[in-house]
TrEMBL record:
<dbReference type="GO" id="GO:0035082">
    <property type="term" value="P:axoneme assembly"/>
</dbReference>
<comment type="subunit">
    <text>Interacts with SPAG6 and STK36.</text>
</comment>
<dbReference type="GO" id="GO:1990716">
    <property type="term" value="C:axonemal central apparatus"/>
</dbReference>
<feature type="compositionally biased region" description="Basic and acidic residues">
    <location>
        <begin position="292"/>
        <end position="314"/>
    </location>
</feature>
<feature type="repeat" description="WD">
    <location>
        <begin position="513"/>
        <end position="547"/>
    </location>
</feature>
<keyword id="KW-0175">Coiled coil</keyword>
<comment type="function">
    <text>Necessary for sperm flagellar function. Plays a role in motile ciliogenesis. May help to recruit STK36 to the cilium or apical surface of the cell to initiate subsequent steps of construction of the central pair apparatus of motile cilia.</text>
</comment>
<keyword id="KW-0970">Cilium biogenesis/degradation</keyword>
<dbReference type="GO" id="GO:0090660">
    <property type="term" value="P:cerebrospinal fluid circulation"/>
</dbReference>
<feature type="coiled-coil region">
    <location>
        <begin position="154"/>
        <end position="188"/>
    </location>
</feature>
<dbReference type="GO" id="GO:0005576">
    <property type="term" value="C:extracellular region"/>
</dbReference>
<dbReference type="GO" id="GO:0036126">
    <property type="term" value="C:sperm flagellum"/>
</dbReference>
<feature type="repeat" description="WD">
    <location>
        <begin position="429"/>
        <end position="470"/>
    </location>
</feature>
<dbReference type="GO" id="GO:0007288">
    <property type="term" value="P:sperm axoneme assembly"/>
</dbReference>
<keyword id="KW-0853">WD repeat</keyword>
<keyword id="KW-0969">Cilium</keyword>
<dbReference type="Pfam" id="PF00400">
    <property type="entry name" value="WD40"/>
</dbReference>
Amino acid sequence: MAARPGVPGSALRVLEEALGLDLAAAGDTAEAVAAEGAFYLEQVAITEASEDDYEYEEIADDNFSIPEGEEDLAKAIQMVQEQATDTQILEQKTVLPSKQQVPEVIEDFLCNFLIKMGMTRTLDCFQSEWYELIQKGVTGLRDLGNVPDVYTQNMLLENENKNLKKDLKCYKQAADKAREDLLKTQKERDFHRMHHKRIVQEKTKLINDLKGLKLHYASYEPTIRVLQEKHHTLLKQKMLTSLERDRAVGQISGLQATLKHMEIGHNYHASATRVGPNSEKENAPEGPTQKGLHEAREKIQSKTKVKDNTKDSEFPTDMQPNPNLYLHKENICPAKFDYKLNSIFRLHELPVSCVIMHPHKDILVTCGEDRLWKVVGLPKGNVLHTGFGHTDWLSNCCFHPSGNKLATSSGDTTVKLWDLSKGNCILTFEGHSHAVWSCTWHSCGDFVASSSLDTTSKIWDVNSERCRCTLYGHTDSVNSIEFFPCSNTLLTGSADKSLSIWDARTGNCEQSLYGHMHSINDATFTPRGHMIASCDACGVTKLWDFRKLLPIVSIDIGPSPGNEVNFDSSGRVLAQASGSGVIHLLDLKSGQIHKLMGHDSEAHTVVFSHDGEYLFSGGSDGTVRTWS
């Protein structure tokens, strides 16, 4: 590019020497630049608020200040007019043609270059020498002219290049961040897609299970109808059987009365009716009526002989002290609550109603609704003996104090006594009009007490084989009965929501305890006998002070019913069998409740071993579970 007219060649040489550049090389590109347009250097005044973000040093220029009187008024007016014109153009949004830039003078270009490069000392030397030459009047310095615009353009392009690099770096960072966000979003999308597929699979599985259950339920309906028909048929047969039984009882009563009359007539006409050994009457065959009369006569004679030979037992007056009173002093080991399911014994086909421990041996006796009771050896759970004889479900059983006899109560309204050494029934007590719920032995072993659905309790004499006393007072089913240890006191729990204390000798109710809001299912004494525990049909368990006959505490473990409660041998732990299948263990010292989860269905009964190391529970699925 050629310099403007009026710029001498000496100026270009000075510029080459100052910058160390070869302007001849710049001349080779003059034609290309000329094709794009002419460039000019413009004189720029450097202020403090420069757009280049460089720090410039202030140079004292007092010699070049313009006096106040010499200001050009015409230029000021022209500037105001130009500003007004620019405002109008901006309002009209008119695009003005580009204005040619004024080339920058050589000294300003050099100063800007040195400031940009940070060469402050060189700048100070240059300015001092430059202005010193001007003051000396060297006129050639003013004629050097302007810097060719190619250098200015190079600087502008360099700045623009730096700005573009900065923008490129920012864009790269933004692109990297966007890439990371994209990867994260893709991972989340894949996760949610897999979760959606899993949910769809689970939904499909549940729909298939629901369809299978509906089909299964539909298959049960005809079975239920068949069972209902069988049930109605059995009820009819039961009614017919009861009618036949009543008819047979009436016939027997009539035969007994006839027999008595015949005996009376035989006494008066003995001489007339006696015949020789060769009589035809003696050789004639007997009819069914005569056979029934002979059998009834033999039974009456055998019963009268037994009654004549046996006497009623007497209730003991000098009772021995309760041996469990001092157990709490001997049991110094802490109570056990960390029971775990050890084994499961499937003993009955129907629900287990009662489980008890032998008083002296490691033997269990279980009763079930399948009309059977079984003697089970521990710890293997092998069945040693199976007893049968009841005609309906068994509700409870109890050991004789010596452990050689067993009493069972049943829904067939009877209480049976069994000899465990032989396994046969030795005695049957009949007298209740409805199912018998519970039975208990007296500590002397001569009396058995039973409670029934007919709202009464009975005390049976084992020696005279008869009912000694019937306890009246409850207004609903008597669900539980138990003798106080080593005494003549009875405890009963009833569906009328009350507990009653009875004197077995007189049959009188001495005290009644009220507090339950629902039917009482079970009640029992502690081994020491100082406290009573009871549970009702809504899972509420109450503790009573037997000496003061006042309630101690009430614990709600519902809403499932509490079926049975039992203390351990120390009397410090109370176990409750719940209708939800959970065995609750209550710490009487701290009041904490521990749960044993293991039954798949309702738990009916629970009992501790003698040393408290094992716990046995029976459920409605016919199993007995061992906890240790």
